[in-house]
Design goal:
There is one protein chain. The strands form seven sheets. The chain has a four-stranded antiparallel sheet. It has a four-stranded mixed sheet with strand order 4-3-8-5, with no helix packed on it. Strands 14-20-17-18 form a four-stranded antiparallel sheet, covered by helices on one side. Among the domains are: 10-153, DNA methylase specificity domains (Adenine-n6-DNA-methyltransferase TaqI, Chain A, domain 2); 223-368, DNA methylase specificity domains (Adenine-n6-DNA-methyltransferase TaqI, Chain A, domain 2, Alpha-Beta Complex), CATH 3.90.220.20. It is 31% helix and 19% strand. The protein is built from nine helices and 21 strands. The longest helix has 42 residues, at 157-198.
Length: 422
């Protein structure tokens, strides 16, 4: 937070406006399976949310009133890896706060806005200030007094309210978009489970006859094949010296680290290398090649889409080129499913660092519908992917907007108009 104080603002300690209520030292032996949730440090997430998944419970006790967190409360982690991380509690029911979790409370509701306090303390700069003051080695700790002593530039109360209203409105859009993304992910998971086991049927009619198979219950007309049965050729990626990497390279090189959290290839992060074309020609990827990671995080899979320059898979990827009667994206979705992933991991060999071979992967059994049904299944899943991509794009745009607004409004660089009433 800048030391420059905008005109009309006051640089003062956070404690002028708020106090910090510490949590209660609950005893683990008193936890129970139901009752009032207890918010622990681990429940304050890095995205600023309070997530009660995995929370422990405690019986309701009238003596613990001051340790209640209700909707709208701003909480802060006071020790551990997330020291200084602030979150907003938005549940309809109350919870108790555990020790080393602090709750902000306003000292005067006519001077300070809790919404503004939430925004200003959500900045990375505030968290960094906390960490500077935190004591301890591997386990930093911060006290109530240290939090309250941090100096912040405060606008007048009406301006606090207006700034908070603007930023909160963006937060609401972000939260709704994230909720939409979460629902779409659940929908995709359910759809994949349904379509990859029960199929989509023919002529708009679902399958009615099923059979037991080495990969579980599947439609009667589906075959069960091995990955090797539907592979024309497979190969490890080529090895070459790291000295060959160059900004003006003539080849793009896809590494295991270029597969993102959704198992999609991030072509923008793939480095370039200057390689001999004739020596690498047989390794050049073609549209539809199936790529599988073979070391470390074994079994991540994606389908290569042709790019503007030739590309190769790096040494820790295996390339599979499939037969015409197998849709690469259908195989990708099969290999992403929990049951087949479990089988893939069983094929991996080694100790701490597991490894997959092309030979072992070719023994992997997979169901094989008709090419027509494969295409229908892929199109159905891709329709959800398209909606997810649009929602993620919207989320990214709004997060960037929020960041820019915080930089402008919380520093006074851009002033808001406050309507004055007579």
């Amino acid at each position: 937070m800048s030391d420059l104080v905008p005109e009309g603002w006051l640089r003062t300690k956070l404690g002028k406006y708020i106090g910090v209520q510490g949590g209660n030292a609950f005893k683990s032996e008193s936890f129970c399976d139901e009752g009032v949730p207890i918010i622990r440090i681990s429940n304050i997430k890095k995205d600023g949310s309070i997530n009660l998944k995995g929370a422990v419970y405690y019986k309701e006790d009238s003596n613990l009133e001051k340790f209640k967190a209700i909707s709208g409360d701003v909480l802060i982690a006071m020790s551990g890896a997330t020291t200084g991380k602030v979150g907003r509690y938005n549940s309809e029911f109350f919870s108790y706060i555990n020790q080393r979790v602090g709750r902000f409370f306003l000292k005067n509701i006519n001077e300070g806005s809790i919404d503004f306090i939430h925004q200003i303390t959500s900045e990375d700069e505030f968290t960094n200030s906390i960490l500077i003051d935190a004591v301890g080695g591997a386990q930093p700790n911060i006290s109530n007094q240290q939090i309250e002593s941090i100096s912040i530039n405060f606008p007048p109360f009406p301006e606090q309210q207006k700034i908070a209203k603007i930023l909160t409105s963006v937060d609401e859009v972000i939260e709704k978009t994230q909720a939409q993304i979460d629902k779409l992910k659940d929908l995709k998971t359910g759809m994949m489970q349904e379509l990859l086991t029960n199929g989509i049927g023919n002529n708009g009619k679902p399958h009615t006859q099923f059979k037991d198979s080495p990969v579980g219950r599947v439609p009667a007309e589906w075959e069960v094949v091995t990955l090797g049965d539907v592979t024309i050729e497979s190969a490890f990626g080529p090895r070459f010296s790291s000295d060959e990497y160059a900004d003006d390279g003539n080849f793009g090189c896809i590494r295991t680290t270029d597969m993102d959290e959704n198992w999609d290839i991030n072509y923008s992060t793939a480095p370039l290398a200057r390689l001999n074309f004739k020596e690498l020609e047989k390794h050049i990827l073609v549209d539809g090649d199936l790529l599988v990671t073979r070391s470390g995080t074994c079994g991540l899979v994606d389908v290569f889409r042709v790019q503007t320059m030739p590309m190769v898979a790096a040494a820790f990827l295996i390339r599979f080129r499939l037969t015409e009667n197998m849709v690469p994206f259908f195989v990708k979705y099969l290999m992403m499913s929990a049951d087949i992933q479990e089988n893939i991991q069983l094929l991996a060999s080694g100790g701490v660092q597991k490894n997959l071979s092309g030979t072992s992967l070719k023994t992997l059994k997979i169901p094989k519908p008709s090419i027509k049904e494969q295409i229908k299944i892929v199109n159905a899943i891709e329709s959800i992917n398209s909606r997810l991509a649009n929602a993620n794009k919207k989320l990214s745009l709004n997060k960037r907007l929020k960041k820019a607004l915080m930089q402008d409004l919380l520093t006074g660089k851009v002033r808001v108009n406050v309507e004055l009433t007579a």
